[in-house]
Amino acid sequence: MLLTRRDLIKLFGASAATAALGVSPKAFSASAPHLVIVGGGVGGTATAKYMRMLDPSIRITLIEPNREYVFCPGSNEVLNDEVTLAEQTVTYDSIRNRYGVNVVLDKATAIDYDKKTVRTAKGERIAYDWLVVSPGPDFVFDAVEGYSRELAEGDFPHAWKAGPQTLKLKKLYQGMRTGGVVVISAPPMPYRCPPAPYERASFMAEWLKEHNPTAKILILDSKPDFIFQPHYETYWKEKFGYGTDNAMIEWVGEHNGGKVVSLDPNTRSVKTADGETIKADVINIIPVHKAGKFAFDTGLTMGKQWVPINPFDFRSKVDKNVFVIGDTTEADPMVKTGYLASNQAKWVAQVILAEMTGKDPGYPLWTNNCVAMAGEDFGMTITDTFRYHDGKIELQETIQSPVNLNPHLNAERVAIARNWQRTFRRDIFE
To answer: For residue range 140-190, what is the model confidence (pLDDT) as tens digits?
Structure first.
């Protein structure tokens, strides 16, 4: 559910919507209710910001080990030199200084549900009235035999959390031999940002077409199809000879043996489900996803791959004072995107405010706005609307931009995508 500044003023008046801006965390009463948030990604930071906008008096603590956050939406453009990693990097200065959030640069390690405290790696115990957990996803490296976290940090980066691995992948594919081969292994659903493997392949091909035109990108997919497939295939046919013997991009779906089952790092080769061995100069395995490590360590997953939640308010099924949002949750049919994480965060903030004030939180309606690009001149959009109905989350409506051969419309959607990325980043971190 989206909350605009106008909505906030309607609900609480202009003074309540702005009173906390520019206030130091030290200014809040020690007796005030305390919201603690684990994870300074999109979901966690959005919770902190919008909770403050809803209530100027609550104490808010954000626990996050990193001083900076690399924004994932738009980070594929680092690979074709359209943006820098620095342009994708944000800090917590605004959340701390403008919204009066106490940012603790530490790693959360445990929850004491009885005492309502979070323990950190440095030994601090932080008491809470409500706890929001938003650690992002982790990866099942051994779903591909021979792959590992160590290899991902070396010459086989997944680059699915924007940062140093993004730069490593860029260096590898831009530096490979003339006529080299890039293999991208796309995971099964669910995973973070469903269009991103195909956007990545497109941006790589765009760069290679100019600098290494005989190179090839092979997408080996664990799925029989993918989001925006008609859009990407239309663009690939026009720009990269898709479907021909000389295609720069080739896609092999799960039904044709595209699933990668093993990696041999010594021979730089992968084996597919149908037994074929494929050698490549660059191998980009995007791993199967699972809930974040903190969720497993604290029992929030309840033995599952994802964290079960109450579909109405995203409370953990382990403890009613703990909410879990973002990519680490089991919230089908919601896809895993930063935009949905931010809307889950805004709804949870409303639920917490309702508990504080004894008011009805209202009824949840969540939207997912997703943009993607196939190139610097071809963009696409999709919007999903979800609602809570009959005890579960339901997909209410999907609106997707059609495949269009009008170059002006396609270029306009690129502008829309870039503007969306900028405004979304500012909405969360400024």
So the answer is: 999 999 999 999 999 999 999 999 999 999 999 999 999 999 999 999 999
CB 202 within 8 A of CB 167: no
> What are φ and ψ of residue 85, in 5° steps?
-65, -35
pLDDT tens digit sequence for 286-315: 999 999 999 999 999 999 999 999 999 999
What angle, 0 to 180 degrees and rounded to 10, lies between the N-to-C axes of helices 196-211 and 164-174? Answer: 40
Q: Which CATH superfamily is domain 144-288 in?
A: FAD/NAD(P)-binding domain (3.50.50.60)
Torsion from C-alpha of 197, 198, 202, 207, nearest 10 degrees? 10
On the question of pLDDT at 26 being above 70, the answer is no
Q: How far apart are CA 29 and CA 49, in angstroms?
A: 18
Architecture of 5-136+292-361 per CATH?
A: 3-Layer(bba) Sandwich (3.50)
Residue 183 parent element (H or E): strand 181-186
Token pair belonging to 391:
């005890």
Q: Are 421 and 337 in contact (CB under 8 A)?
A: no
Amino acid at 313: D
